[in-house]
Each structure stands twice: as C-alpha cells, then as structure tokens.
Design a protein that fits this description.
Helices cover about 30% and strands about 30% of the residues. The protein is of the alpha+beta class. Bound molecules: adenosine monophosphate.
C-alpha cells in the first residue's frame, strides 16, 4: 500500500524509518518531512493543516492509508475532513476524529472524561472569566504547589506550577482575563499537584481492541539534572525500570481499560494512538494527561523496540481487527538523546551545517529540525536530531546514544549528557 505520514519531527522520522521497512509499504510519502525522512520515502511540500493540499497529495499519489503524527491536524479535524469527503472517505486515517482528539485538545474535556470513567487523577476544577472569584476561593483550598492548565493547545507551554497561592491567583487572573495563552486559556483547569515519578504509556486502538506499546520516560528540561526551562523533550528511555509488571497491570486495569470502554460507551470513535501521561505515586498510577498521538522524543525509543510490522498493526486499526494482529516487543533498551540548536528553548540559531552523521557507530539518527541545502544538511528547528540506540542493557544504550551524539557537530550544538542516568 501507499502510505502518507503527516509531520516533520523526530517522531515522524522514526515512524518513517519503521514504516519503510514493511513489505506491505509500497510507497511512503511524508508531508512535509525533513532532510531525514527523505531517506525513507518522498517528502511532499504540504503543511499538516493544509487539508485541501493533503487531499490532492492523497489522490495524486494513490495513498491507501494516512498516519497523522502531530496533534494539531487531529484537533482541527483532519479525520472528520476525510470522512466528509466522497473521494477520501474510504481511505483510513490513523488518528482520532475531532471529538476523540479533545482528550488532548481540551484539558477540561479530558478531566471530565477521567471523572466520568473513574480514572484516577488529581482533584481539579475548571474556571472561566465569569467564575474567577470562585477560582480564587478554590486556590486557597487545594494545598501547595498548585497546577494551572490552559484548557486548549498551547504548544506545551500552558501548564504552570505555582508555589504560593498569591502567585497562583496572579497567574489565574492573567490566563483568564488577559488571555496569557490566547484563546487556549479562556478556560483554566486548577489542579492538585501530584508527587511522584512521571512516565508515559502508549496504546494503539481500533476503538474496540487495543495493544499496549512500550512505556517510556522523557526528559523535558533543557539542563542536566532536570534544571532550567521546559523544552519539547531532550531525550527518552524505554522501557522504564520502575514501571514493572505489577505497576503496568494497575495501569491497564485502572486507566487503559476504562479509557477504551469510556470512549466506546460515550460513542466517541477512536482509531489511533493514545498517549497516557502518568504519575507513579507510591506505586499507584494517576493520570496527568492524555495526548491523541505519540510523543516526541518517546516515539524514537518506543518504535525501535517494536519488532513486528507497524504497517500490519495500523491495518488492524483501520480494519477493526487489531486483536488478530501480533505485537512483539524487544527486551532490549532504547535510549534517545535529542540534539538541539544553540539558544533553544529561547530564540535559537538556524541554518547551521551539520557534519559527522556518518561517524555515528551504533545508533539511528532521526532528523527533526533539518533541511537539505544542496548536498548539505542544515539546521532549521530547535530540536535538530534525535540519536537513538538499542542495546542489551540500559547503561550501554545510554552510553552509546550519548557517545554517538558527540560524533555530530554544528555551530551551537547542545545535548544533555545525563539522559536516563537517573534510572540506573
Ligand atoms: P501536561 O501538559 O498536562 O503534560 O503538563 C505538563 C507537565 O506538567 C507534566 O509533564 C508534568 O510534569 C507537570 N504536571 C502536570 N500536571 C501535574 C500535576 N497534577 N502534578 C504534578 N505535575 C504536573
């Protein structure tokens, strides 16, 4: 079959790498892709939110299946767009329709969904401009620190952790009355702080059956020792040692099954990935968030551990027979080190020539913010490359990915040298 993959990050490079290995994948197209995805298929110069452009790309290239990488087209209804179009309606899209994508697109929706389906999560309430006063009263009752979340998509920036009630009041006021995060903060979820260790669990579902993919831990802060500003993600490791069999059983019983059943009972169709962000609080899982797609840079580590054919699994999602498909997960450990541009996550350097990729010894180099300028590979984004190594044990995987990252050079290059070492 011909497959179109939407997106241009490290996640999409990892997907493209895996999809292109399938005997079922005849032609792979990536829109818009990057300098790396071009190794595995054909990049198309179409934006992920240009639905008409995507339609033309699908028809021109006789695409039989679309995999959506990022959340934005899903929240904006790419899947609904396909279903409503006579020429596209029979072409399966992997990724939920607009309603299911609300699990990520609206924190208020997802909190209410968790509550209705008895899924363990932090206590919370949602406020608007009209209920600001009630919000102030609630802030004084839930204990410190206080978590404030803009309801809508805010490019990963909409969550604030406030250490005092005064700070929380000020921020809540700015979010609701001064549109601190634009339209995304016209509603704000005020939430209790969960103490514990974070991890992510990924589920692939056809809306009825599901497969639990490898768990992963990501590293969000720019600085070593988890210090400094938040980023899109500086690295990841899979599996997560503290997510043992017993803990994952709890996740399946308390979170995954109620989520799939809840979607079914509420009549929300869902074909795609569900990213479950969890806090392990003393051995019990509590929900932090859902995402309606895979994570980046978790995908890079997760995909390396999937031994079975990903196209076969996606076909199972499309056809509703995922239960008949086999998922084999490697016992090896995957570690990903993200290389970023100088200045990131603030204003960052661009158009720097990348050298040394050919010196990498035992890792996959997944491109993120890169482009081809003639023969040269140059940087274009904040997150530039993701270096993923799959090895028999965690120490070797971490060491190899880190060593291989240091074999690559561009002006201003930076990566964390401590990814995963807290887990050893
Ligand atoms: P989210 O966008 O919901 O993933 O939130 C971003 C980050 O904020 C998460 O990855 C957590 O590290 C942190 N966070 C969110 N909610 C909570 C909570 N209730 N307690 C503690 N930390 C949280």
């Amino acid at each position: 079959m011909n497959i179109l993959l939407l997106g241009s990050g490290g996640r999409e490079s990892a997907f493209a790498w895996k999809l292109s290995q399938s005997p079922k994948c005849e032609q792979l197209f990536i829109a818009p892709g990057n300098a790396g995805t071009g190794q595995y298929g054909t990049n198309l110069n179409v934006k992920v939110t240009d639905f008409e452009g995507i339609k033309q790309a699908v028809l021109n290239n006789k695409v039989n299946l679309v995999l959506v990488g990022p959340e934005e087209p899903l929240v904006k209804g790419i899947h609904d767009f396909f279903l409503a179009d006579n020429e596209l309606k029979d072409i399966p899209v992997i990724g939920p329709q607009r309603e299911g994508a609300q699990l990520e697109g609206s924190k208020d929706f997802s909190k209410q969904f968790m509550a209705r389906n008895n899924i363990p999560a932090a206590a919370s309430r949602t406020f608007t401009r009209d209920t600001l006063q009630e919000g102030f009263e609630y802030l004084a009752t839930i204990g410190l620190p206080i978590v404030l979340k803009a309801d809508g998509l805010a490019a990963g920036k909409g969550v604030l952790i406030c250490l005092t009630v005064q700070e929380a009041q000020q921020e809540l006021k700015e979010m609701l009355t001064e549109a601190k995060f634009g339209e995304a903060s016209s509603k704000v979820v005020v939430e209790q702080f969960l103490q514990g260790i974070e991890l992510s669990v990924f589920v692939l579902t056809d809306g009825n059956n599901y497969k639990v993919l490898p768990s992963a831990k990501d590293y969000k802060r720019i600085g070593e020792g988890d210090t400094g500003l938040n980023t899109g993600g500086m690295g990841s490791v899979s599996p997560v040692p503290f997510a043992n069999e017993e803990f994952l059983q709890k996740v399946e019983q308390r979170v995954i099954i109620p989520t799939i059943n809840g979607l079914k009972q509420e009549g929300i169709p869902y074909k795609g990935f569900i990213f479950i962000g969890l806090m392990n609080c003393g051995g019990d899982p509590y929900m932090i968030e859902y995402n309606c797609r895979m994570g980046d840079p978790e995908t890079e580590s997760v995909v390396m551990r999937i031994e079975t054919d990903l196209v076969d699994l996606l076909q199972g999602v499309a056809e509703g027979n995922l239960d008949e498909k086999e998922l084999i997960i490697s016992n090896k450990v995957a570690a990903t080190v993200v290389m970023v541009a100088g200045g990131y996550p603030g204003e960052y350097l661009k158009n720097k020539t990348i050298t040394g990729i050919e010196n990498v010894r035992d890792s996959q180099v997944f491109h993120a913010g890169t482009y081809l300028d003639g023969e040269e590979i140059k940087t274009s984004g904040g997150r530039v490359l993701a270096i993923t190594s799959l090895q028999d044990d965690m120490f070797t995987a971490l060491q190899q990915a880190t060593a291989d990252a240091s074999r690559i050079y561009y002006d201003g290059m930076y990566f964390r040298k401590d990814i995963g070492f807290d887990l050893l």
